[in-house]
Specification:
Number of domains: 1
Largest sheet: none
Number of helices: 6
Oligomer: single chain
Radius of gyration: 17 Å
Mean pLDDT: 90
Shape: elongated
Number of strands: 0
Length: about 150
């Protein structure tokens, strides 16, 4: 029963993250990085929900990949989990940066430095969501359920 509680809490945290990406008064992305012109363009182009979906899909997908596809006794140590965390934490901001850069270039705007700084803030969000996803879905893994912290 507690496994479903962890899954429910993880899904709830992820939904709050996604809902806060839509929020106009308290936007989670603007709380971590704010530059008036840059953030206005991201909001006007409706990029925040797409960025949130990119982060959610990559972090939950990487956790599912680790716990259900890799799922090997050869990769059930904390440092293997940390490697997947590191890769996910690096790939997610890169994908978001590429999306932001291409969307802003298509709109005829150039915010190179701001895009990089914004992507750096996504490192934190990606890492937190990967940990949330890991603790939400690890219970049903046959070999890696004790990673990163034993039960």
């Amino acid at each position: 029963m507690k496994h479903f509680v962890f899954l429910g809490i993880g899904i709830a945290i992820t939904l709050v993250f996604f809902i806060l990406s839509y929020s106009q008064s308290f936007n989670i992305f603007e709380q971590l990085y704010f530059n008036q012109g840059f953030n206005d363009q991201l909001y006007n182009l409706s990029m925040y929900p797409v960025l949130a979906l990119i982060v959610i899909i990559l972090t939950w997908g990487a956790a599912a990949l680790y716990y259900y596809v890799i799922n090997s006794v050869n990769f059930d140590r904390w440092y293997h989990w940390a490697g997947v965390l590191g890769i996910t934490t690096l790939v997610s901001p890169i994908v978001c940066y590429l999306y932001i850069d291409s969307a802003l270039k298509n709109a005829g705007l150039a915010y190179g430095g701001e895009s990089v700084q914004f992507a750096m803030q996504l490192l934190l969000m990606s890492a937190v969501l990967f940990v949330v996803a890991s603790f939400s879905m690890r219970w049903w893994s046959t070999n890696c359920r004790h990673t990163p912290i034993p039960q």
